[in-house]
What does this fold into?
Amino acid sequence: MNIENRILPDNISVRPMIEADLDRVCEIEEASFSMPWKREDFAQLIYDSGSEYFVIEVDNYIVGAAGYTDQVGEGYINNVVIDEKFRGRGLSGILMKEVLSAGIKKGITDFTLEVRVSNAPAVKLYESLGFESAGVRKRFYEHPVEDAYVMWFRSHEE
It folds into this structure.
């Protein structure tokens, strides 16, 4: 999959998350998840030299966020969230391509994430980006309790 050389529509932008974005990102997070991340969780990623976190904007309005942490040379996709009103427009794909591209530029070749087994749209998105399921983590999620697929993206040939 070629994740380089993308041209975004004029009204869509992806940029690194800054502290001023935290209220809006937390608002989206709280509306989207039963166990949302806290402001401190996101703030830590801004200042962690091993993490990169991005927001996606439509008409200069933050509609989502995603990022990764470098864990011994592998990228762990921490969290991906899109405002419910903006889902189904391809924005998560745009955002994830930016996240993967940023990590690859830093030398990361493999990325992993967990996703609820019931979250078919997310699984489909990750598969379209080149992620493959590598197994299941039983009872990984709480509220409600649910298994997670463990998925991997490898940007190099083995």
In short: Helices lie at 22-32, 39-47, 91-105, 120-128. The chain has a mean pLDDT of 90. Residues 91-105 form the longest helix (15 residues).
